[in-house]
Amino acid sequence: YDTAYLVPRDVNQLSHPYNLWAWLTAGGNTNGARCTLSQNTTLTSPVTFPEDTVGTPLEMRLDAGSGGNDAYTYTYNTSAGSFNWDANNGETWTFSAWAKASKACTCGLWTFFAESDGTILSGNYGVDYISVTTSWQRFEATRKANHVDTEYFQVRFGGPASADDEIIYWDGAQVEEAPSATSYSGPYTMLDNIDGGLAGGSGHTVP
Questions:
Q1: Helix (H, G, I), strand (E, B) or coil at 121
Q2: Distance between CA atoms of residues 203 and 70, nearest Å
Q3: Of 178, 171, 177, 179, which is closest to residue 206 (Cα–Cα)?
Q4: Phi and psi (nearest 5°) for 190?
Q5: Residue 83: what are its φ and ψ, rounded to 5°?
Q6: Using an 8 Å Cβ cutoff, are 33 and 72 in contact?
Q7: Which of 4, 92, 125, 202 could be 144's S-S partner, Cβ–Cβ 3.0 to 4.6 Å?
Q8: pLDDT (tens digit, 9 = 90+) per residue, 91-132?
Q9: What is the pLDDT of residues 159-173, one digit of tens each?
Q10: Are residues 167 and 101 in contact, defined by beta-carbon separation less than 8 angstroms?
Q11: How many CB atoms lie within 10 A of CB 174?
Q12: pTM of the complete model
């Protein structure tokens, strides 16, 4: 790839990894299914950066009495550029994020491969269920593309299947072409090409 203009595929592809509300806004959809999404400016984030930039968690407040259907973000099955990352058949991609909740519950990290118009491909998506507690933990989900029409990788955050009064918090998301989650990094910039070359700008890396 051209290091002067293209973001290397093996570094964080998210443009707003420590402000997921800004990511949703850039994609044009801040609504959620069976939940209300907002930016939480009072909760302590699990991620910081050398520039003293502190993460701002995304709050997913579940709608009570929604019949046991899971809540989720509308960040998949769409042509919105901010929700699509170029991918090819045979590639392995990983989605990771920190999560905590107002009480322990099972949530999900969803991963999808989609065709050129953003429509998800049959048999090329799924969920990794995660046990979220009241403390921040990092979780990850990995998927390999297995369809000749693969053009994009997409993700979504999923709440518990049985909606009650839980509040789920998400932060520090990372999307990368990799077989597992690597050290968390901030948004990749052209400056990182100078500082870190193809390593993805080590000045933004958090162990």
A1: strand
A2: 38
A3: 171
A4: -60, -25
A5: -105, 10
A6: yes
A7: 92
A8: 999 999 999 999 999 999 999 999 999 999 999 999 999 999
A9: 987 766 789 999 999
A10: yes
A11: 24
A12: 0.85
